[in-house]
Design brief:
With 192 residues, the chain is of the alpha/beta class. The protein folds into 2 domains: 25-99 and 141-185, Beta-carbonic Anhydrase, Chain A; 105-138, no CATH class. The protein has 7 helices and 5 strands. It has helices spanning 3-16, 43-50, 74-85, 106-115, 120-128, 133-137, 143-155, and strands at residues 33-38, 58-63, 90-96, 166-171, 178-182. Strands 2-1-3-4-5 form a 5-stranded mixed β-sheet, with helices on both faces. 27% of the residues are buried.
Length: 192
């Protein structure tokens, strides 16, 4: 069975059995936090459980590496929307040990693109139109530094509400143990 068919078949039964009822909540988050974390599949259930989060408790933003790279990119926009429109008042940037973005080689990624059917002329055109694929596809060498860099981008954003705590943590992807990299309360007074 194809993945989409398998998912839709399960979903039909899930809705019919009212499996959704245990997850009912509203669009505002109860703990008033927004979390940026990695899309690593090991964190799908582990991260919320390790933080004592239930459905409806937090706004979760996931990407490769849990990285905020651009002050006016999609991740930062989502953080600001959560803070201004969706009841959040604290930000957590959470990296993890053994992340696939650690030391990722952009040349290997481009090679895999070509293996999967992206033609050389497309890569060439992108590179010669100002797109720095190597920079865009580069991860990081140290998860602690990555979290610190992301926290600094968020903390210093000109549109961040004053006194918004921006925390940096690292989670262990096997145990769920959290390590504080930077305590946002030390840099601001928590909002109500």
């Amino acid at each position: 069975m194809r993945k989409m068919d398998e998912i839709l078949s399960y979903n039909k039964q899930f809705v019919q059995d009212k499996g959704f009822e245990q997850y009912l909540t509203n669009k505002h988050n109860e703990k008033r936090v927004v979390i940026v974390s990695c899309m690593d599949a090991r964190l799908t259930e582990l991260l919320p459980k390790a933080m004592n989060l239930r459905n409806g408790d937090a706004k979760l933003i996931k990407n490769a590496g849990g990285i905020v790279t651009l002050p006016f990119g999609n991740i930062m926009r989502s953080i600001l929307v959560a803070l201004y429109e969706l009841n959040a008042n604290e930000v957590f940037i959470i990296g993890h040990h053994n992340c696939g973005m650690t030391g990722i080689n952009p040349d290997n990624v481009v090679a895999h693109m070509k293996e999967r059917g992206i033609e050389e002329h497309v890569i060439h055109t992108l590179r010669h139109s100002g797109i720095n694929l190597n920079r865009w596809l580069t991860g990081f060498d140290n998860v602690r530094e990555s979290v610190e860099n992301s926290v600094e981008i968020v903390r210093n954003h000109p549109l961040l509400p004053p006194n918004t705590p921006v925390h940096g943590l690292i989670i262990h992807p096997d145990t769920g143990a959290l390590e504080v990299v930077t305590d946002g309360y030390l840099h601001s007074e928590p909002a109500d």
